[in-house]
Automatic annotation (TrEMBL):
<keyword id="KW-0805">Transcription regulation</keyword>
<keyword id="KW-0804">Transcription</keyword>
<keyword id="KW-0238">DNA-binding</keyword>
<protein>
    <submittedName>
        <fullName>Helix-turn-helix domain-containing protein</fullName>
    </submittedName>
</protein>
<dbReference type="InterPro" id="IPR005471">
    <property type="entry name" value="Tscrpt_reg_IclR_N"/>
</dbReference>
<dbReference type="InterPro" id="IPR011991">
    <property type="entry name" value="ArsR-like_HTH"/>
</dbReference>
<feature type="domain" description="IclR-ED">
    <location>
        <begin position="66"/>
        <end position="222"/>
    </location>
</feature>
<feature type="domain" description="HTH iclR-type">
    <location>
        <begin position="4"/>
        <end position="65"/>
    </location>
</feature>
<dbReference type="InterPro" id="IPR036390">
    <property type="entry name" value="WH_DNA-bd_sf"/>
</dbReference>
<dbReference type="InterPro" id="IPR050707">
    <property type="entry name" value="HTH_MetabolicPath_Reg"/>
</dbReference>
<dbReference type="InterPro" id="IPR036388">
    <property type="entry name" value="WH-like_DNA-bd_sf"/>
</dbReference>
<dbReference type="InterPro" id="IPR029016">
    <property type="entry name" value="GAF-like_dom_sf"/>
</dbReference>
<dbReference type="InterPro" id="IPR014757">
    <property type="entry name" value="Tscrpt_reg_IclR_C"/>
</dbReference>
<dbReference type="Pfam" id="PF09339">
    <property type="entry name" value="HTH_IclR"/>
</dbReference>
Length: 227
């Protein structure tokens, strides 16, 4: 099934506003979406009626209150922050690299849903809401359910690593978090500057990360695979 073009265009407008994190004019929306202004105006009428978009007095547009309701409904259905944030904060207190939790956004990208910076003086640049490539980086490999990485297969076939793939100066190790029915919900990772990552440090971090992934799976009602 190909979907509905009008719905995809309306979602492109909402996504442009979400990425911008500030009001956009009609001209700016056209630039960000690649849509004709006349098409955008027609779609904005429906988006305004639904409360997903609000038109301001200066004729710019921003996300509306329905976006807040959607976020709260998502949190109620999938309590990621309540379940995983304390676990991730404890990992930082234990001296681990910065933990992040990623989920699939679309066929080409993943989105960072949660992030806690480590206590190290230098960090990698990942923030909540960032869209990152699905084809690069350890979390992307987990979400794609790529073949086990031979570099860490002796720790667990569930682990994935990346050294400078997405960002030449950064590295990461990631593992899966499962939901009910062993559905893959997301990827929990440790990431940081490349100079603090090598196979020796990954062999130290890997078992800690896997234990955290198993606990996160339990917190979210999932079943950890055995064997």
């Amino acid at each position: 099934m190909d979907g509905v073009a009008a719905v995809e265009r309306a979602l492109a407008i909402a996504q442009a506003l979400e990425v911008a994190r500030q009001p956009l004019s009609l001209t700016e929306l056209a630039h960000h979406t690649g849509l004709y202004k006349s098409t955008i105006l027609r779609l904005l009428v429906s988006l305004e009626r639904g409360g997903l978009v609000v038109r301001r007095s200066d004729q710019s547009y921003t996300l509306g209150p329905f976006a807040v309701r959607l976020g709260r409904a998502y949190d109620a259905c999938m309590p990621l922050e309540a379940s995983l944030q304390p676990l991730m904060e404890q990992l930082v207190r234990d001296g681990m690299e910065s933990p992040s939790f990623h989920v699939v956004h679309d066929a080409h990208s993943r989105i960072c849903m949660l992030r806690v910076d480590s206590m190290h003086s230098t960090l990698d640049r990942v923030r909540v809401g960032d869209l990152l490539p699905l084809h690069a980086g350890a979390p992307g490999k987990v979400l794609r359910q790529a073949a086990p990485d031979p570099q860490v297969a002796d720790i667990s076939p569930l682990l994935q690593v990346s050294f400078g793939e997405r960002d030449p100066s950064c590295a990461a190790v990631a593992g899966p978090v499962f939901g009910p029915g062993q559905e893959l919900l997301g990827a929990l990772s440790f990431s940081g500057p490349l100079d603090r990552f090598n196979l020796s440090t990954v062999h130290v971090m890997g078992p800690v990360l896997l234990a955290a992934c198993q606990k996160a799976t339990s917190l979210l009602g999932g079943v950890w695979p055995h064997g």
